[in-house]
Specification:
With 367 residues, the protein is mostly beta strands. It has a single domain (3-366), classed as 6 Propeller (Neuraminidase), CATH 2.120.10.10. 0% of the residues lie in helices and 49% in strands. The chain has no helices and 27 strands. It has strands at residues 3-13, 22-30, 36-43, 52-58, 66-67, 79-87, 93-101, 110-111, 116-117, 121-127, 138-140, 147-149, 155-156, 162-169, 182-188, 196-202, 208-217, 223-231, 241-245, 256-257, 265-269, 275-281, 288-294, 303-311, 332-339, 345-353, 356-366. The strands form 7 sheets. Strands 12, 13, 14, 15 and 16 form a 5-stranded antiparallel beta sheet that branches. Strands 1-27-26-25 form a 4-stranded antiparallel beta sheet, with no helix packed on it.
Length: 367
């Protein structure tokens, strides 16, 4: 199994003269008409509480892109919004993520002392017209103590179940006790009228926690959850964790290792129960965005191929450790992967690189 790079470039690019604002959280979905949408955020700097969602569209299978204005311009001064796009079987598009109130100018949502984020809430929105218009964001109550980290799109299964993962996160309050060792899965069977929650992934090592959780439905109907498996101390992180569900997310297999020493990661299903697993690499191997093909079971992640698809010129902006605790110095991140109608694959990611800054992409073919 091999990858052939067909094209690469930028979905959104800052000018060489002014590399602000910072772009982040690029996720893609294909409409019923075959167009590709990329949802991404712009902010004044990494860690700043001023995320604004934007959207780009490609009518030529990811080669050229047109960026439209803010999705909710009337909300940009009220909330910092970070969300991800996905599509249901019937063609409806969804945005899922979080919003944080904007109460101060030039405010950071990150607290280095607690390794926490400002209190926030999950939200979702739907488009029934291929992303031309979006409903107002609808809040989703957080069931457990802590803030929410929700970088993954909403997974709408074949049965119509809504499955939304998030990782509990510390806040600015050092006295608040938060369970950081599991991925929480929000489940709704009535299109968000009611929700319940369960744990999809749980790690058990001392001083371990999870982040960047993702859930997708495989071609055989099983659900796959993955997460960045982190070590809060000075040592190395653990390989990315995963678990599987054979009953539409109600119960989950024991958490196991993918054997891949990745960081932020995204998923996209392939045929025959296989999955694409795209991830960042800053510390354990050549810096850049890597792509693995796997056929996971409850006993083994089943890696079939694993190689770099985008080389980073620099891993961090100022030669920091590359660990999650130094994430505001990262020079690229948050990759996503999408299978296109022509059976090619689109990988998108944000980058702050000598060769250009913005939302980069690589289009490739798997053979």
């Amino acid at each position: 199994m091999a990858y052939k790079i067909l094209n690469k470039g930028f979905i959104y690019r800052n000018s060489e003269e002014d590399r602000s604002p910072i772009a982040c959280t690029s996720r893609c979905a294909v409409t019923l008409t075959g167009e590709v949408l990329c949802n991404f955020m712009l902010q004044s700097g990494l860690g700043m509480n001023d995320f604004t969602p934007y959207q780009a569209i490609s009518s030529d299978a990811g080669i050229s892109w047109k960026v439209s204005g803010p999705i909710w311009p009337h909300l940009r001064d009220c909330y910092s919004i970070n969300n991800s796009i996905s599509r249901a079987q019937n063609g409806d598009l969804f945005l899922f993520g979080s919003r944080t109130p904007r109460t101060k100018k030039n405010e950071s949502f990150w607290c280095q002392e607690t390794l926490g984020i400002l209190p926030n809430e999950m939200i979702w929105s739907r488009s029934k017209d291929d992303g031309h218009t979006w409903s107002e964001p609808q809040p989703l109550k957080t069931p457990l103590p802590g803030a929410v980290e929700s970088p993954a799109p909403l997974c709408i299964t074949r049965t119509g179940r809504w499955v939304a993962p998030y990782s509990p996160h510390n806040t600015f309050d050092p006295s608040l006790k938060v369970d950081l060792q599991h991925v929480v899965l929000m489940i709704s069977d009535d299109e968000s009228k009611t929700w319940r929650h369960t744990s999809a992934i749980r790690v058990k090592e001392d001083n371990a926690y999870v982040a960047e959780a993702w859930v997708t439905e495989l071609s055989d109907g099983k659900l796959l959850a993955t997460a960045w498996h982190l070590h809060r101390g000075q040592g190395n992180d653990y390989p990315n964790a995963y678990a599987m569900s054979q009953d539409n997310g109600t119960t989950w297999s024991p958490t196991l290792s993918t054997t891949i020493m990745g960081q932020s990661a995204g998923l996209a299903p392939l045929a025959d129960g296989k999955v694409l697993f795209v991830y960042n690499q800053r510390r354990h191997g050549k810096p850049g965005v890597w792509l693995a093909v796997a056929k996971p079971t409850v006993d083994n992640f089943g890696v079939l191929a694993n190689d770099i698809v985008w080389d980073a010129g620099i891993a961090t902006q100022n030669a920091s450790s590359g660990k999650s605790t130094n994430w505001t110095d990262f020079a690229f991140g948050e990759p996503s992967v999408t299978v296109l109608p022509d059976n090619t694959v689109l990988v998108a990611f944000w980058c702050i690189q000598p060769a250009g800054s913005g939302i980069g992409y690589v289009k490739l073919k798997i053979s």
